[in-house]
Amino acid sequence: MNNEVSITKETQLFSEIKSIIDSAKKDLAVQVNSTMSALYWEIGNKINQDLLKEQRAEYGKQIVSQLAKQLQTEYGSNSFSEKNLRRMMQFASVFPDRKIVATLLRQFSWSHFTLFIPIQDELKRSGECNPFGDGNVRLRKGNRFFFHDPSKAYDN
User: Fold this and answer.
1) Is residue 139 classed as helix, strand or coil in its secondary structure?
2) pTM (2 decimals)?
3) Which of 26, 44, 80, 130 could form a disulfide with 71 if both were Cys (CB 3.0 to 4.6 A apart)?
4) Element at 67 (helix H, strand E)
5) pLDDT at 154
6) Distances in Å between the alpha carbon of 122 and those of 4, 94, 111, 118?
């Protein structure tokens, strides 16, 4: 009998510690998503500001292309491809207010923002997402809903 109680306590202890670890991992994933999305907004905003000073389309194309090559050499990641830098620029253009972005970062990951960026109508864009109290986000695109748990590993 005493041995059974000991095994039950060990199982309960394991379950409780597992729950603590899983919760911390979930919190960490949400923080990473938020930080990466904030970084991407900052990069897009900085590029937009610098390119607007020059106001030359051809110059801007060359700069973004060269910058992408430099960032990929330095950081070895496809996250900084020319295509992704342009997406970051769009992100900062579509959501120009840093305070609004800071609020949205608590609920949405980069993959969410990439779905919102192409929506031209601001009113429609604001209606296309809906955070639910269960921690998941349901993204509506047309008549289809996409379910996403913002605590999942970062996806670019």
Assistant:
1) strand
2) 0.71
3) 80
4) helix 57-75
5) 39
6) 62, 9, 18, 10
